[in-house]
Amino acid sequence: PASDPDLVERALRAKAALGDRLFVLGHHYQRDEVIRFADVTGDSFKLAKDAAARPEAEFIVFCGVHFMAESADILTSPAQRVVLPDLAAGCSMADMATFDQVEEAWDVLTEMGVADVTVPVTYMNSSADIKAFCGRNGGTVCTSSNARRALTWAFEQGPGGPEGKGAGDRKVLFLPDQHLGRNTAVLEMGFSLDDCVVYNPHRPDGGLTEEQIRNAKVILWRGHCSVHGRFTAGCVDEVRDRIPGVNVLVHPECRHEVVTKADQVGSTEYIIKAIEQAPAGSAWAVGTELNLVKRLAARHPDKTITFLDRTVCYCSTMNRIDLPHLVWALESLVDGQVVNQITVDPGTAHWARVALDRMLALP
Ligand code: 13P
Ligand code: SF4
């Protein structure tokens, strides 16, 4: 539906009143009515890099989800204030790994004597204290655009560099998205499915035997994205029957069997570029969040772009940032009131930044 013209007018007015004091970041999964007000759009990697691009901006309004706003707070100067227009915009995947659960898992690995050859790598989609855990324990952060580079770094550089402890026999604890971890390890790095085990935080010892943990190269956390996890291998078969010659393009948060059946896999930014560069007349079935797929279809009328699933599949928490919340946040700033500020305590921020800086320095 078309945006309420009164709200559009108010958002424009508030943005103009704030001028350079304001910097609005928007993730590609945001609604059309919101993304049009973003100064910069991107996937989570690009937004992490861009967050610090406007040191003169007093306010960073983050149109995305909570973990992204936390990362923006960590990566910007203390004087800059990060606002999330709706505090209920969380991420169900990030919630699947709590700090206490991860500490417990690390205790299990420590008791077994494998923690000191294990490098924790967390997906960006995790809370700041999980990133800090990785920073403190010699690990890093990754996003869907650099997961292979981050895992390669973890295996090759690990604790103490190429010749350091555990060299040649290292493991990675990958948090919290089992699918991104498995897809990267198996499809991009040559590990076998048997090299990967899934640690279930709701079971004693992760539901794994000591032998399974000792033999594993990649210990995957039992987390997933509720949006990308909905695509099935059947969706791929169905769309291939329905649209002969269709190219299936999916995000690596999709299940392994979906990614293996697809023609291409990549982060949100990759998906956008692939569609932009595709020849006119080509057909694409895209397995990612629906706001983005609809926008791609509208932007490329010369190509057939369809959603990989037959059912509607928005990310409900991304969608919580709507125009009324954005207008409320912006007008509050105009009135001198910083609402919904996201702050990470300095101790956590320090170690999370160590992990994030390792990611940003990846070759
Ligand atoms: P990217 O932005 O890294 O593609 O990740 C997608 C996602 O699910 C963000 O929440
Ligand atoms: Fe989290 Fe998935 Fe939504 Fe991204 S799309 S914010 S991973 S639930």
List keywords for this structure.
Rossmann fold, pyridine nucleotide biosynthesis, binds 1,3-dihydroxyacetonephosphate, metal-binding, single chain, 4Fe-4S, globular, alpha/beta, 3 domains, quinolinate synthetase A activity, 363 residues, binds iron/sulfur cluster
Task: Report on the architecture of this protein.
With 363 residues, this protein is of the alpha/beta class. It folds into 3 domains: 5-91 and 318-345, Rossmann fold, CATH 3.40.50; 94-224, Rossmann fold; 228-307, Rossmann fold, CATH 3.40.50. It is 41% helix and 15% strand. It is built from 15 helices and 13 strands. The protein has helices at 5-18, 32-35, 44-50, 66-75, 99-111, 128-136, 147-156, 178-189, 210-215, 233-242, 256-261, 268-277, 290-299, 323-334, 346-360, and strands spanning 22-27, 40-42, 59-63, 81-83, 118-123, 140-142, 171-175, 196-199, 218-221, 247-250, 264-265, 283-287, 304-307. It has a 5-stranded parallel β-sheet, sandwiched between helices. It has a 4-stranded parallel β-sheet with strand order 2-1-3-4, sandwiched between helices. Strands 11-10-12-13 form a 4-stranded parallel β-sheet, with helices on both faces. Helix 3 (44-50) runs parallel beside helix 4. The longest helix is centred in the C-terminal third of the chain and has 15 residues, at 346-360. It is globular and about 65 Å long. It starts with a helix and ends with a helix.
